[in-house]
Amino acid sequence: MSLSGIFHSSPGLYVTQAFFHSLVASIVAEIAVKAWDVRDPVVRQRVFLVPVIAPVFLFPLFRIVSPGRDSIHFRLGTIFESGRWLELEMLGTHPVMGGLAVVFTITTLVFLFQELIPILRHSFESGKPEKAVGKVDCLEDPAIRAAMETLPVLPAVFVVEDDDFLIYSTTGKRAAVYVSSSLVAALTEEELRSAVAHEISHVVRSRHPMLVAAYLLRALMFFNPVVLMEFRRAAQEEEKVCDEFAVSVTRNRRGLVQALRKLYLPPEAPPPPNARKTRKTAKEIEERSHRLNIESRISRLESGGDHDSGVRSLVPAAVAVAVVLINYFIV
Amino acid sequence: MRSKAFGFLAFAAGLAILVIALKALNWFPLIAQKDLMRRYGDYEEMRTALGIRQVFVPSYFPEDFRWPPTGILAQGKPYPAVIMEFERSGEGKPGEIGMMIYQAAEDGFSPGGPLVISRIREQATYPLKGRSAVLEVGSGVKGEPCSRISWREKDLRITVLARLTPFELMKVAESMLP
Description:
Largest sheet of chain A: 4 strands, mixed
Number of helices of chain B: 3
Largest interface: A-B, 41 and 34 residues
Largest sheet of chain B: 8 strands, antiparallel
Structural class of chain A: mainly alpha
Radius of gyration of chain A: 23 Å
Oligomer: heterodimer
Distance between the termini of chain A: 22 Å
Helix content of chain B: 25-40%
Order of helices and strands of chain B: HEHEEEEEEEH
Mean pLDDT of chain B: 88
Number of strands of chain A: 4
Strand content of chain A: 5-15%
Number of domains of chain B: 2
Helix content of chain A: 55-70%
Shape of chain A: elongated
Shape of chain B: globular
Strand order of the largest sheet of chain A: 1-2-4-3
Mean pLDDT of chain A: 84
Radius of gyration of chain B: 21 Å
Low-confidence stretches of chain A: none
Order of helices and strands of chain A: HHHHHHEHEEEHHHHHHH
């Protein structure tokens, strides 16, 4: 089957329209965030999840609701017809069609090697208990203990022997938080408590139905670069949501800020004298991006956080409605 | 966090700009490539623009239908296809398309649109001046009688679809062939 045949088949139409629907949804989400100046990570996360979830359903939904949407008459009168761009010819080739095929292939490989395989490996390894050398008791404070007891899950917190600064959690039946011995030594008691509370929030929220559904739906869109990007943005907001949770439990912003600084922002080493400043390796760019993300979390925590309770449902709902209405006319 | 009202206003303005930008993007391929599916003002304009050598047209029109077609849609790529729409000129709803004739170099070509057979009651092979045509009799979306006849002419698939009796439909189809 030719490339054109693949794009004009039913799966090809689904893939193409899902891509354009997510692209439009992503722009609508960005407009909403700017229009309402949304800063609350919970609202931002919901908004960013619309372009992740909507394209899974829109094409089949539109086909059921309006079979005439496939007709040439509808296509000619619509806002945007992807077929026109796909059929554009240049020097006997279809550059847009070829370009999209390359983009979908690269995105699939990124999903496979950066997400699916690491997650499967993590799930497999999380079944095996780590070699813990001790246990941290964060529940000494009666207020924290009272807050924690209301949670649906309270994972054990273990210390593992390691010279690197590490703190991570495993989910599932044997949910646990692991802290490296060097980090325990470096953090004060209140900082450690904040860091552990943040990790416990990840464990608790990993069972959140909306997030579980979002990840499963995101996996169905494995080929879609816009969904990949938007899901990662939603995941970044997840860190901020967990920061808020940690602060609400420990009632100590400063403790989490200090923990984040010690854990992720060690003083930057000066570049080697013969280093070429114009060329940055992929690792350097990734580290820089990670550092910016941590700095944004710290700055948010220091400014006291943002709670847009008035628009918690309104903005995601407005985005969802606009996405459905506009995408109906994107074929 | 801005006020809700200002937010709604800014959101609506942003959406309007997005729709306008998408519309503009949608026009670009039509400017860059002349043979994509589009609507033509008349039959001659379409033939000149696309250079389609052979377009099968009927010489017989039932009552209420007449030449030229009220709408012509055509493309040269990815394969040549021509759709001619005929509105009823007599009684009936004004502007209602009662007959569609389309030809395409692809068997699976189905334009959909204002005239469709939603339920096929009867299907038969019918000899049409030496060709083997498929005649389908059924009803449209609103239950009105609707018939379709389709046959292969060299490298083209020709279809006539109309709110007509099968007898009238076959007369139209026969008049399209030498």
